[in-house]
């Protein structure tokens, strides 16, 4: 499936896809707020999350080409999550 993400980057360019990521994140935010405040269908949140993930996969490829070790970034994020969970649980 990564072929289509590479193709999208080649076709649209990295800057437009970075802006697309901002737009998709905004749409996800809106869908989540509506879901919480108005009890909207969770399918809409799922659809927007899928859109974010699709563009995110393109951005990961872009960042990899810029020398960013996304796996290391993700590992740090998970480590912070673990620390927050432990802190809340009083561990």
> What amount of the residues lies in strands?
under 5%
Rg result: 16 Å
The first-to-last residue Cα distance is 41 Å
- The amount of helix comes to over 70%
The main β sheet shows up as: none
Shape: flat
Beta strands, count? 0
Count of alpha/pi helices = 4
Q: Low-confidence parts lasting 5 or more residues at pLDDT below 50? A: none
Total of domains: 1
Average pLDDT score: 96
Query: SSE order in H/E notation?
Result: HHHH
Protein structure class: mainly alpha
Compact overview of the structure:
This protein has 91 residues and is mainly alpha-helical. 88% of the residues lie in helices and 0% in strands.
Q: In words, what does this structure look like?
A:
- With 91 residues, this protein is an all-alpha fold.
- It has one domain (2-89).
- The chain has four helices and no strands.
- It has helices at 2-12, 14-38, 42-65, 70-89.
- The mean pLDDT is 96.
């Amino acid at each position: 499936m990564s072929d289509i993400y590479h193709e999208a980057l080649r076709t649209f360019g990295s800057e437009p896809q970075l802006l697309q990521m901002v737009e998709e994140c905004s749409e996800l935010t809106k869908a989540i707020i509506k879901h919480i405040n108005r009890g909207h269908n969770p399918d809409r949140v799922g659809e927007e999350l899928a859109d974010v993930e699709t563009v995110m996969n393109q951005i990961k490829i872009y960042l990899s080409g810029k020398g960013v070790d996304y796996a290391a970034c993700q590992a740090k994020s998970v480590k912070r999550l673990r620390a927050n969970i432990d802190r809340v649980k009083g561990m």
